[in-house]
Structure to design on (495 residues):
């Protein structure tokens, strides 16, 4: 998505627009509002966002955003923050423990219960039930209690003395009632699942590309309020004339990615878990364990909340469905789940219109072979992209391809990480497995394997995006990982 227009009536009406730009690997590079100021995003090789610039000036030729206010994030190898520098002010995060829990953030100490749930932080106390569901949050002058049904849906909450009952249609919030069955909110959704109307209040919702509520208008099309967000979803409120507000004058609380925001508590309700926006992570570890984020059970969307979303508190669903569809598309396009590589590369086109490019293991020179892969499902705009794809080992991190393109993706493993550890203790078996699967890959159109490049590598799959691929020697195995993730998600949804 590159452009959105919303049109409103009245004195503060007119068109409100969003323009988006993307880099060569389809990551969002900037968001420009109304043809003026822009927000920019800077990535590391792990695809985490390290730089977030607000209110800058975008160069439409390069997509670079300069000026504005910069927030810089530093992470350790597991994706835990080590420091955040916001507009020149540094907040230090004490080194996370082996469970990726922060002992201290700035001057604030964080505490955890035996199940790994955050239970004390910055004057707040959090309590959980036996299923790790948040049952209460309290601080001086603030108190909230939460109640759930057997499907983990929150059906009642008592916030600062006010009781609200929630009615669900499956996993979609349909309505909310107060005491004596007083209707508070009744929600209607569009074909894509985005919230479009609160019938009880006569409000229409207008979203950005992330599905976050950006504007609210009444039934006459008059703009009432508008909202912007920081990188991890903290909302800022503006009236129709763009004057800053401390909160919504209309009680709007379906905000970041269209989900329920607990005003005054800093929590976004993502169904199976509570997302703590200020830390960019969940209060609880992932209920599905390493079936979600295998590197970190707490972080939100792999520290890449611009390109990904998690509406269930379980899976990075944007990347999951995108990768799953690409995998299925690859199967029906006639490509194999494994492809072998050598120092040469070749490409082939399938009947469905998808171009499948096979590319080689690193040669002895300073450059690495690079190819472009164009992927599209015919008759749709799905996956319409051209990628520079390279499968490489850890030693090639930061190198340049043969056509001069740097390698922003396909980093094998961090030194000292799981894949690196396995590779060091399994050298001989790796060579055997790699050679065997490499020659087997010749049957699927690949070239014979190259000695010296036959090791198990855990890597981000450059074709399918975030889902981890595993290379056995020169063979990149991706489909089994997608199917395993699908099976885990399916089992989770079973009664």
């Amino acid at each position: 998505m590159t452009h959105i227009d919303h049109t409103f009536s009245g004195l503060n009406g007119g068109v409100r627009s969003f323009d988006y730009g993307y880099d060569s690997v389809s990551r969002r590079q900037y968001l420009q509002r109304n043809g003026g100021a822009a927000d920019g995003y800077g990535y590391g090789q792990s695809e985490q966002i390290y730089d977030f610039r607000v209110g800058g000036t975008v160069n439409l030729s390069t997509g670079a955003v300069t000026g504005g206010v910069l927030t810089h994030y530093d992470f350790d190898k597991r994706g835990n923050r080590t420091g955040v520098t916001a507009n020149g002010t540094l907040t230090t995060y004490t080194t996370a423990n082996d469970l990726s829990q922060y002992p201290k953030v700035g001057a604030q100490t964080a505490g955890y219960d035996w199940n790994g749930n955050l239970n004390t932080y910055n004057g707040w106390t959090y309590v959980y039930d036996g299923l790790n569901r948040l049952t209460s949050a309290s601080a001086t002058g603030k108190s909230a209690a939460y109640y759930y049904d057997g499907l983990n849906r929150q059906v009642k909450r008592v916030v600062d003395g006010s009781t609200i009952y929630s009615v669900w249609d499956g996993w979609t919030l349909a309505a909310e009632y107060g005491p004596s069955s007083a209707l508070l909110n009744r929600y209607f959704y569009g074909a894509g699942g985005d919230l479009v109307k609160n019938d009880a209040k006569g409000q229409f919702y207008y979203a950005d590309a992330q599905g976050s509520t950006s504007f609210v208008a009444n039934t006459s099309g008059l703009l009432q309020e508008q909202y912007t967000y920081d990188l991890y979803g903290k909302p800022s409120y503006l009236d129709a004339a763009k004057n800053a507000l401390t909160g919504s004058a209309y009680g709007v609380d379906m905000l970041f990615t269209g989900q329920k925001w607990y005003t005054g508590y800093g929590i976004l309700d993502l169904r199976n878990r509570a997302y703590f926006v200020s830390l960019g992570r969940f209060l609880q570890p992932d209920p599905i364990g390493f079936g979600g984020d295998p590197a970190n059970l707490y972080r939100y969307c792999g520290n890449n909340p611009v390109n990904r979303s998690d509406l269930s508190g379980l899976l990075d669903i944007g990347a999951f469905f995108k990768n799953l569809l690409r995998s299925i598309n690859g199967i029906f396009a006639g490509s194999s789940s494994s492809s072998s590589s050598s120092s040469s590369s070749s490409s082939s086109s399938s009947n469905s219109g998808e171009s499948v490019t096979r590319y080689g293991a690193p040669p002895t020179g300073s450059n690495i072979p690079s190819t472009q892969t164009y992927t599209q499902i015919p008759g749709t705009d799905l996956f319409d992209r051209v990628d520079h794809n390279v499968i490489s080992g850890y030693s090639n991190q930061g190198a340049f391809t043969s056509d001069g393109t740097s390698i922003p993706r396909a980093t094998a493993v961090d030194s000292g990480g799981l894949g690196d550890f396995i590779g060091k203790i399994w050298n001989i078996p790796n060579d055997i497995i790699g050679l065997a699967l490499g020659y087997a890959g010749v049957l699927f159109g690949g070239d014979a394997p190259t000695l010296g490049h036959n090791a198990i590598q855990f890597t981000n799959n450059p074709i399918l995006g975030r889902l981890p691929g595993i290379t056995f020697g020169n063979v990149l195995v991706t489909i089994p990982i997608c199917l395993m993730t699908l099976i885990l998600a399916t089992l989770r949804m079973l009664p």
User: Anything to note?
Assistant: The chain has a mean pLDDT of 74. The two ends are 36 Å apart (CA to CA). The longest strand covers residues 49-58. Residues 318-493 form one domain.
